[in-house]
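Blackboard transcription, Thursday session:
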Amino acid sequence: MVPSPRLARSVDDNPHEPDNFGMSVPRPAARPVFLLLLTAGLAACGGGSSTPSSPVSPTPPVATPTPTPPTPSFAFAVAGRTIASGTRGPVAGASLTFAGGPPTQSAADGTFRYTSATTPASTPYRVDVVAPGHVDRSLWLRYERERTDVQIDLLPLSAPFALDFYRQLVRNATETPAELQPLRRLTRPPSIYVRTVDTSGRDVDPATIASITATIQSSVREFSGGTLQVATIETGRDDPERTGWITVVFEENPFSNTCGQARLAGDPGRIWLNLNRCGGCPGTRIRPATVAHEVGHALGFWHVDGREHVMAPIEDRPCTQTAPTPIEQLHASIAYSRAPGNLDPDIDPQSGAAQLAGDHTPIVISCIRPSR
Ligand SMILES: [Zn+2]
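(Written on the board underneath:)
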């Protein structure tokens, strides 16, 4: 953008003011508006001996000094806090690098402020954060001339967070430790369709349907850190595949070793449940923990070690267990605060959609009944 001669005389002495990355900014028009508003503001505030409502007298123009707008001393600025994922306590001494500029440090209370004399080369621009006792993080920020209250949470290398457990739950380190997966998760509240007949056309009893829908509703909330709630629940005899929906279907196959299956963060989502095969509970022909387990897969999570956890690949859990453990919920909620496509250890993609583009093959997880 070539400044006009009029602009070149502006007190705004930054000829390289950002141009919104290609969009022209009508700067010449902005200055007169500013002055007009300023004048009006002074009149409205009153003060002095003149009556604000009295007509403006034809006072001869005095050489009024032009108000000097604050001279911008930066091309862009970012202020905020570095905090620990989960506990959200301050992270002091974090080193933050914005758009490849010189690093800035967070203070004892986690606050930071960075100013740059040059605009970033692109938007969003990359931010790299390194802090003692925490996992390095890379993320992307959309360019704004001045951003405030930017909260950047870092994975702590201390309890209650456990990077090993997070890698199992989010990256399938349990089964493919040499091939850690990108974060897959839902990005909008799912609707649920529960089929009321099994694959043989037999009705599924209403008590089981009621138990399953209740568990799905609570599990969606618990596996997403409360960020997602089931949008709608429908039941019926159809078997639809609809974007934004998770369809729950039943079979009753005593010869299968599978208690359930689910598409991992699939859209359309799908959960298969094998009735009676892996043990029911009072009032339901499938354990609530089995349903919660498949919901965990449907929301993007993998198997973990530790029999106490709902995402452990076992099926003989007590009927009283209906929810993911607090440790599972903590780690899952952190995953749901990250961009889809986030890579190990904590690297956000520039665009979550781009990162997973082409990855349309549903991942079906079978949950095998332990051999006896
Ligand atoms: Zn499973």
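Lecturer's comment: The helical segments are 5-8, 27-45, 163-171, 206-223, 288-298, 326-335, 352-355.
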